Amino acid sequence: MILKKTPGYKIISEWLASKGHHPFLFQEETWQHIIDKKSGLVNAPTGCGKTFSVFLGALIQFINEHPANYQTKNKNGLQLLWITPLRALAKDIGRAMEEVVFELGLQWKIGIRNGDTNISERQKQKRQMPEVLIITPESLHLLLAQKGYPDYFKSLKILAVDEWHELIGSKRGVQVELAISRIVGLKNRETSDVNHDKENSVPAKNKTSYIPHRTSHISLWGISATIGNLEEAKDVLLSSLKSMGNQNHPDKNVVIVKATLRKNVMIESVFPDEIEKYPWAGHLGIKLVDKVIPIINNSQTTLIFINTRGMSERWYQALLDTAPELAGAIALHHGSIEHDLRMWVEENLHTGKLKAVVCTASLDLGVDFRPVETVVQVGSPKGVARFLQRAGRSGHSPDAVSKIYFLPTHSLELVEAAALKSAIEETLIESREPMMLCFDVLTQYCCTLAISDGFRPEEILEEVKSTYSYRDILEDDWKKILHFITEGGTALQQYDEFKKVEIEDGVYKITSRRVAMRHRLHIGTIVSDPMLKVKFMSGGYIGVIEEFFISRLNPGDSFTLAGRNLELIGIKDMTVVVKKSSSSKSIIPSWEGGRIPLSTNLGKKLREAFTYAALFSKNPESPAKALNDYAGVIEIKELEPLFVLQEKLSHIPKANELLIEHIETKDGFHLFVFPFEGRLVHEAMAAILGYRISKITPITFSIAMNDYGFELLSDKPIPVDDGNVYELFSDENLLADIQRSVNATEMAKRKFRDIAVIGGLIFQGYPGEHKKAKHLQSSAGLLFNVFHEYEPDNLLIRQAFQEVFDQQMQEPRLRAMLHRIQQSTIVITFPKRLTPFCFPIKVDSMRENITSEKLEDRVKRMQLQLSK
Question: What gap in Å lies between CA 24 and CA 13, rounded to an integer?
């Protein structure tokens, strides 16, 4: 069927023309594939119409099938299932879809199903599914936990996964893979049933299970921004469709549709009035607030992205203190603010009533905030993809320029701005590695299916093995999971509470209502520290706060949340009760997980940026032509005083060099190493290096690190020199040295808590009565010790250690770094005092023992002394 000759295409293209638009080539290509019943992945820059490439394709397909009555045909059953990672995104997408459906005169209903959907709406969906259902991964699994859930998908034609680049590489992505495998498995069985009916020629009137608009074919489409491993991302998403003997989907029916549009991104760095020769992290950004006010005033609407929730609270207050006239025109948005307040902010962003919004990753994604002209990124985003995603929030249309300002939190961070410019020029975007063999998610999934209609292990194993994540699962591992959910496994078989699933005629079912209810309450893979709601005495919720923070406060203490100063009155029924505070000083909350490590790609471009800095520092008056052609030349030249001093005192490492600095101070003997690989890799490498040195001579160290390098500090000289340095940075015996140098068991025990919650070993409590974090940790610790002693080959224990190596220590990246160092020149210097490169690491090592006010005073004295 040729797309442009179809009635659906004619109607959609006329509708677009009436609004002054025309379809892009990549959209038309996707529509052609959809009517040809193919599946694939759509890749296009933010703001270029990725959503419409699939949604309008579904409408074209429907109109083509019902050209005479497409405007009157209603109650068609579920046609399009749209999986989205964020609740806020669902509202945006629903609004855009409803507008199209209304203007075309279709009778389609657009439904949303997530944690915010009320019970009456869910019941309505149960009675009559809307034609489009927008759903989160967690809510999709809750749907699979309902009796008779296969009926919901009988009319389904297209399954779309939005923002796939955000989901792949996380356990939520694994959830999506499993849900897809179930839906595809159901469709395959429908095809078998239809073929069986045909062979047996059963008269239609005798077929009691016949549904008029049932379809056994399904197309699967992912929608993704650019990532480094796009081909692999497609394979992960479509694995079940290609694996389960589905003849409709040979490889030629699986495609990647790439938009040839190049989104213009304009990056401008905000420079401090004076470049500090001795920079340190975190203090500079807020001092540049005066330079942000003109940016806000000169734009229709500005998004100011901050990397942490605590810092976003400080920025919101600082902007109001500096420009009180902005009161009422600026707002704050992050994940801990009450849902209704967040909705109000998003609504006013759409209508253009807000001049600026200070936000975190909570606004990284979204369909359309058209009034946003400008984005400000405060501090390094630590990744190219994240920076591009945020830049794309401005100029959110294909022909508009995305304008983003980079505001450093210390002067050396300007090198990251140069690296980002270079990476974007080369389209060097990070890959998102898929997660493999997540046994906790699979255990939860089996219990989810057992709640609804139950499952037969041989059927589900075939589906599970069709996914990318579990393609290598062993028969023995599958049997262990079944043994675990039915008998509690080897270690827990004496305890009835772990015997959740019963077997009836070969079908695995959960028959206990109590077990089923507890399981439904905790379907999902996002495990965070327990959150407490924050509420005014007089009524009205403000947001949520993590238990570990609030437990350190006393009644009468003031803290800031949602841009308000609040006084703690007390905690009652898992709710923090507060009143407005008139105190001029208040504590900014801290949330866990605030620090993101530097990505591999940004680390690579950062090392390249220092190569240009080395060229420049040698001859600032007449820089090499290569520097003038470099995308980040402005930032490199701006940092001239810092680079000249670094070169004078030590050395600026090029991309093929590793710099090591030996420095002696009154604190002791320092060894600073600069791989530029991110704090997690540096933390692991510091421990390994310390262990390897201790084998040469008995010595103890304290360790500090940042994204650029790490420090070993000792009270005696550190024996690292030209004779042993390559051996110390070898990847030989790496795994053994990691296990000896790092307390991997203790780290795995911490990791096991989340795995135990996802796998259903630990119940977090009913709504309003969550267990305290320390109780959860002690329960997990007890189970960990039991498994470790009595069932050492337990799948969840195995997974905990694997996650520590892969995620916390980043073992593959650590190994790649050591291999790179072996091919590089190692430069060892002996500066007489601290250098601009090592100074930020030294300051980081002092943070734990000094308050922020005292730290700033101490740093100023150190800077003054070093300048002299």
Answer: 11
